[in-house]
Amino acid sequence: MPETRAYEAPQVTRLTVGRMDKHRTFDVLPAETLDSRWDIPGLLEKFGSPLFLVSEQALRDLFRGFRNTFTAAGIDTHVAYSYKTNYLPAVCSVLADEGAWSEVVSGMEYSLARALGTPPAQIVFNGPYKTRAELETAVVEGALVNIDNFDEIEALDDVARTVGRTARVGIRVNVRYGANGWTKFGFGYDSGEARHALQRIRHAKRLRLVALHNHGGTFNLDPQMYATATKALIELARIARKLGLKPTTLDLGGGYPSSNRLKPAWDAPGRRAEASNLGSFAEAILGPLGRA
Q1: Which H helix or E strand runs over 107?
Q2: Can you say how many angstroms the Cα of residue 80 is from the centroid of all Cα atoms in its chain?
Q3: Does residue 215 belong to any structural domain of this protein?
Q4: How confident is the model at residue 270 (pLDDT cuts 50, 70, 90)?
Q5: Does 288 sit behind a cis peptide bond, omega within 30 degrees of 0 on the bond before it?
Q6: pLDDT tens across 94-124, in order?
Q7: Closest C-alpha to 113, from 123, 127, 98
Q8: Which end of the chain, N or C, is less surrounded by CB atoms within 10 Å?
Q9: To which H or E segment does residue 129 belong?
Q10: Is the residue at 40 inside a domain?
């Protein structure tokens, strides 16, 4: 006869997270404690709850602070905003006004960037799958397409030949760091795939290599991962030049950690962050670039 156990009522325990956490939400505050310039009760009555508000000035300040943190003398830094993160047109438009480029992964996002006035030369088209129609538009208009796999090299060369243009391309490189490498996208640096991709592009008639791109995942807590990736891309750029290719841009991707709080994780605009936050990630990238 199976053993019976006395019923125990379930318990719900509140957990307090005191460290950076990918899934942590910002501290919940009463609506009346927020910016007094906003009529929060009135907005809630008009639009209902939940209600998401974006401060244009805070958005501008945060972008400037981020860009300044990753800027150094002699290095031309551009920040390409990831549309998939939040493609509300107003948000994208404000960031574009601040000088942000557009990083897109779909035809919809590409069309939105163009509708908001982003020049094609300031659009970075990423992603593991792009339709032929999307590639044709990007090539004709002159956007940068980061190639994700060997099939895309052939497809993009064929598209460029069909439309009678030369495609501006980069390659997505995955650089192994630690026990688990981010190997499901792009060309492996350590396996030699990235070098092979450069050879293939060298022989393609309609592809012009302008960028080397690395994106090592999301919520990366170790700045040294970016240092390793930066050094790998610098070495790959040297290899590319020996092959007669002329890359001009190193794209270090995103994936920086965030505590998802309203308080910024870096210093105020115009000042470099301290080593305890995103400044350490900036140093991991800018240091190798400055010594290259």
Answers
A1: helix 107-115
A2: 7
A3: yes
A4: very low
A5: no
A6: 999 999 999 999 999 999 999 999 999 999 9
A7: 123
A8: N
A9: none
A10: no
